[in-house]
Every structure is written in C-alpha cells, then in structure tokens.
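Bit of a strange request maybe. I'm writing a small parser for structure token strings and I need a real example to test against, not something I typed by hand. Could someone generate the tokens for this chain?
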Amino acid sequence: MTLSAGSRLGPYELLAPLGAGGMGVVWRARDTRLQREVAIKALPVPFRADPGRLARFEDEARAASALNHPNIVTIHEIGETREGPFLVMELVEGRTLRELLYAGALPARKAVGLAAQLADALARAHEAGIVHRDLKPENVMVSREGFAKILDFGLAKFDHGETGAGESRCDATLTEENRERPIVGTAGYMSPEQASGQRVDFPSDQFAFGAVVYEMVSGKRAFHRATRAETLTAIIREEPEPLAAVDSQVPMPLRWIVARCLSKAPEERYAATRDLARDLQNVRDHLSQIDGSGEGPRSSVAVPRRPRLRLSGSVAVAVAGLVAAAYFLGANVPARGSPSFQRLTFRDGTVWSGRFGPDARSVAYAAAWGGGPIRVYSARPETPESSAVPLPPASLLALSPSGEIAVSLDARPSGAFTTTGTLARSTLNGGATREVMEGVQAADYAPDGAGLAVLRTADGRSRLEFPIGRVLYETASGYLSHPRVSPRGDLVAFLEHPMRGSDAGSVAVVGAGGVPRILSQGWTTVRGLAWSPDGGEVWFTAASVGGSRALHAVSLSGRRRLVLRVPGALTLHDVSRDGRVLLAQEHAREGIAGVSPGDKTERDLSWHDWSRPVDLTADGTTVLFDETGEGGGASYAVYLRATDESPAVRLGEGHALALSPDGRWALSTPQSEPAQLVLLPTGAGTPRGIPTGAFDAVLRAAFLPGGERLVLSANEPGRALRLYVQPADGGAPRAITPENVGAEWAVSPDGLRVAAVDARGALVSYPVDGDGDGDGDGDGDGEPELIPGAAAGDSPVRFSPEGRSLYVLARGDGAACAVDRLDLATGRREHWKAILPPDPVGVYGIPRLLLSADGGSYVYAYVRLLDDLYLVDGLR
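Reply from user aminoacidic:
Good idea to test on real output. This should exercise your parser:
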C-alpha cells in the first residue's frame, strides 16, 4: 500500500506530507483518539526490507524518546502496521532553520537566542550519552513562537562504542548526500574527524553546531566548495573566513564561541557541551549591554553565571563585575563604574518584603528573625540598627507616599510561596491598625496613596482587584503574586504562576480593560517585581534554569535585558523614585528530615539543594523525592533513598509523583507540555510511558490499592486543579472532584474515598467512583461529605490502616506544626505529634508530611530561606 492523504496508520489519519529525507517521509496526521495533530515519519517502501534501515529507524525512536527537553522534538510512540513501522512525533508548527536562512543572516539577538536553545538541547543529549551526528539547519525547526527544536535523530548513536552488530559510530550515512561513502553526516557540517572517517564523539556535534551558528550570524556557510570532496577537504585542512571579516557587528563573545567550536582538534573544543550552553546563555543575557560592534558596553553592570564562589556583600558583586568586564569588554576597554551595595540586615532569618519610605531614604521591611514570627521593621542606611515597628506580628504589603503602610496581620503560609492574612492599614510609628479585608495575599498602593490593588483567592481562583472590589484579572489555575501599580496608576504588573506550589511563571501587566499582556515568560523561578521610576520597564528577579535568580528588566513592548547577576539568588523588593534598588540575596533550600522505623532520632535525608519528598513506602523504609533546584539540572531529577541515610539512587528526570504498591515503579512527570506520565523502574528495567489526558500539569498522584488505577491531581488547559481517576496502564481520566480541589489529599485504605481540601478550605471526603461535580447526583458510591472535627488549615496526611481515623497536618506558627488524629465517626480530635525542625531559623511552616502505615516512622519537608537585605545604587 502506498501512503497518501486519507490513509490510516493505526489510529492515525494522514492529512498531508510535510517533507521527505533519506530516512523517511514525514506526514501531518491526526490522532483520532486524542483529537490532536501529530507528525508521523514512515519508512519508505524500498527500505522496509532492509534490516539495517529498520535498525536505524528504531535507533532514532530510542535516541529521541530517551530525551526530554523543550528544544528536542518529542517522540510519542513507535508503531507498526502491515504498511511498515512509523514514528509518531509532536507536530511543530513553523519553519526549518534552513528556510529562515534563505533570506540571509539572522539578527544577532534572534541568532543568539536560537543558538542558546540548541546548545542547551545538545548538552542534554550528550549528558544522556547520545551523539546526534547530523546537526544542520534542515534538522532544526523553529516554531512560530521562536522556539527551536532539534529533529531527526536518524543518525544518532548512544555513546557505547561498538554495537552488537559490530558497527561503530563511524558507520555509513543514510542521507542522500553522503550515501556514496562510509562517512556519517552531511558535508559542510561534518567535523574534521567525521570527514576523515575517524571516531565521532560529542565534540563532533560541537563542530557541527559551530558551523550552524556561523551560518546563522553570517548568512554564509563556513565550509562550502564546488564539490562534496572539496568541501570535506576544506573542513579537514582550511579555516573558515573569520566572522569579524564577514560581519563586524557579530558580538565578540559569540565570535569566540564559534571559533572554539570550529577548532580542528576535538580537544580544543569544549570539554563538556554544558559549558558551551552556559557561555551562550551568558551572551544571550548580556546582549543588550553590547553595542553594534559587539565590543562596547551599555550602562548596565552585568555579572556572568559561571562563578560559583560564595562571597559576601559588595565583595561578591565587585569580583563578579570584574569577571564580567574582562569577559565582555577585553583588556583595552576602560573600566566603568560599578554599583554600590549597602547591607541593611544582619540577623539570621527570612526577609519577606521591603519598601522604600516616602523620602526614598528610609526603608521598611518585614522579616522573621531567629525562627520567630514575621514582624515589620524600619531602617535607615546610615545606621546598622533596625527598629521594630510597634505592631502585632504582621507582614508588610505596601507603603504609601504619605507614609501609611498596608500590612497582613497574622500572616500564615497559604502555599509554598505565599502567605495569607488580614489586610490592615497603619503607620510606621505604630498607630492603630484598621482592618480592611480577610484572606489577602499581597497588595500595593496607587500612586496617590488612596486606592489599593490586592491579590486574594475567591471561589478557588486567584484574583487581582484594583481598586478593592473591582476584578481586573483572575486565573482558574495556578496563582498570581507580586502586584505593583505603575507610577501613572494605569497598569498593574504582576507575576502569574501556572501551578500552585511552584514559583515558575511569567511577568504580565493588565490595565482597566482587564486583558493581560505577557511581557516575559518561561522562567523556572520568578519572585520579586517593581516598576522602573519612569514606568517604562518592569524589573523582576528570575532564573530560566535552576534557582539562581538574576535581576532583569522588560519594557512594555517585551524587550528584555539583564540588569544584575551575582552568585546565588536575588529577590527584588522595590525600586525608589531616584532609581535605587532594594534587593535581598537569598540562600534557600528545601530539605527532608524524618525518622526511620525503630528510631527515635530524626535524620537529615536531604540530597542536593531542593529535595522534595513525595511518597513513603508503607513500612517507612524508603522515600521517593525529587530535586527541582540547581542540583536537579534543567530537567529536574527523581530519586529514591532509604530512610536509614543510605545514599540516594537517581531514577531519572522530571518530577516524582508516587511509588507503585509493589515498589517496583516510580511514577513521574517530565518537564513537558502537555504533561506526560512516565514509570521509572526502581530496579532493573526501562522507563515506559502511560497515556493520559491532555493536562497542563500533573501536581500529585497516588496508586489506588491493587495498583490498577491512579488518582491524579492535575489541571486541563484553562481549568483549575482537580482530582481524576484513570487506569494505571493508561486511558481516559475521569474527574472525581469539582475544580480547585487537589492540592492536598489522601486516599482511604480501601481505595473508595479521597480526603481533600476543597475550594473553601474545608476538608471533604470524596467518593472515588463519584461523578466529579460534587453534587452527588452521579452513579458513584456516595456523596461528598464534610469530615467531622476538621478545622480551617488542616491538610490530610494519611488514613489509619483500618480507615477509621485520619491524620491531619495543622498549620502552626513559624517553623512549628502539629499532627492531629481525627476520628471519622465522632469527629473527636486528639494531638498526635508536634513537628519542629532541629534548627527552626529561616523555616516557616512544613509544606508536606508523609507517614508510614503504622505511624511509626515519618518524613517531612522544610523550606529554609535565609536573606540579607541590600540597598543598591548605580544600577541602570
């Protein structure tokens, strides 16, 4: 059968051809099960009887599916019909890089942005032991949104030397261009060792990458001669024309990177492709500071990401600034002024917020020192002492031009990165407080000091109001944070986070029309926001990988620039009218502590910098956790560790979700959209995917007893979080709760009910076989029921083995919390245990507790934030 539009390959209907190459024809197709469009690569008819071609086709699927990266095409599955094998891939709407280059060189900013994406993807492949071997513009797709995707792993090889069939990584190419001789790759993009038939390794991909970037910024190929043989000879013996001679506007740091990649000797290239990716990220982040010639600075002072030394105060910034100057400007460029840093706080604890006073000299801030509650303090730069404002425990929300302050009384954690309390107005001299509204998370004054913009949760939705009572914007999923009114009072800037419990997100503004505009997105952590004095930019602190937030600025048209980077994470609190900046340098980590079976002393079970416990075996001997900070890498990592402090075992990438009842599998979700489910073997075996619904994100999961079904806490596009049930081997999920339910929950021992916190904060028992709308009119076994004895703020932890009682985590003050046991029949509540980390300084609440079945052992998560507040002058 010849494939044509309208043909079917299993559940896929072919729509139209997209292209063809030596390894197959690519079709646009429709998945009739999920009603989505995909790309399908089918092996050409003449190759289907060739065992070598078939093996390579399977190698492509194996290579690409082993990687999970936003800049590598996603392989959904490999199928087989009587018409032959086929690959099902994500459909990337856009053009190939080759098509973009038909018009000539790309603008420097676009070229550097695409190059940084490709280098990060290539680094990820190399870290997984995969060499692409055929990187070229034809194998890079650029989406309409400007995202680059590496395609076609048909020539890729895992880095394991000789294959079982006796082929080395230097076996014959499969492309039309070089089928004539046993050299892998495409002439013009081969490395010298590739062109001469020698061993091909990771540096070979770096050479091809350098050739691609050379062409992106110059508009001409680095090595292109009249014949293929002459091209290969030029690669081996000749140097390309220097980029400076082709186009003097190419930034100097980019020239250096390309020249290093195009070195003839592999050992003269990068020792690790991750270093190449970091260098390109530096160039991308600093590009706004380099003038047209690529050799001069702009006014901002920048610090590269590479230094790892932990220096303090102005010394760290000064050293990093010198490194940046040497890196970007060269020895012959005169030094420019550096910003000045003045430390304002000297105690151990967490700075929650800070604002400049009306005179732009004094500073007010809220902090929890020494493990105590959050209080408001005032400080002046000329003295090292801070004065406590005579108010009850409260967090500072905003400070008006007249000196009035908006505070959050009795502020308590309402999530991993938010606090909620009662909005009140007072003064810095400790005058009487006037309560305004309950349940407020953040606020900011209008320029006239009269109106307030507030963030609060209503009906389960995170809502921005300005003035109070007028809804400007609300989101059904995730949450909003850091509202700031513009100097003219016509716009409110804020951060939007797509998932509760995560500080990843975007920078947005919204006006009176209520239609938000995204100014900058794709940040893995973004916290802290303020307007520039003239209102032309929004300044914010964020990181695209890991947790080391830098200070950025973005214009209302979306033009972004890096303002400041230092070792560690920064949090922006305010920008004064005269351009001075209030910044906190943060030392943060999430850790794990717990008690193993038979022990009474808590052990520290943390592994890297952001260890988050997810599941505990019924016997309490093993904890499943993930690493989502710097230590987890760009794709994060899933680990398993015995509670006796044995070394942790890395299972794979992504977020951890749950352990299977038999302990053989760890359910995880990669960093991808739409969300996917992957089972990682805890012992011998290979990962395997589980088909699921079209979810933006999966937050939590659990296996029901027997392991045949899953409970998922997830959200569909445009909808809020809720609980679903689906078969553990894949299938259509079914909602079992209303929306805004599913942040915290526990499954009963018989698997019939789930205890969860609803949108109002009440603890409710939902039937697993219910209809999901919460009204009890479906075919499920029972209706939702309020759990007797529960109090506001309770989070379900675990049912007792017989199911007659429920352990709940009751929020406390500071780092302390209590675990109580509720009798589900009578509502009787009894205290079970108090949880307090051995060192409470900087710890504010316990976000998660996991219990063994008998309650004899437990583990819990704690987040420690230690901040130093600085007044920074001279940033532009």
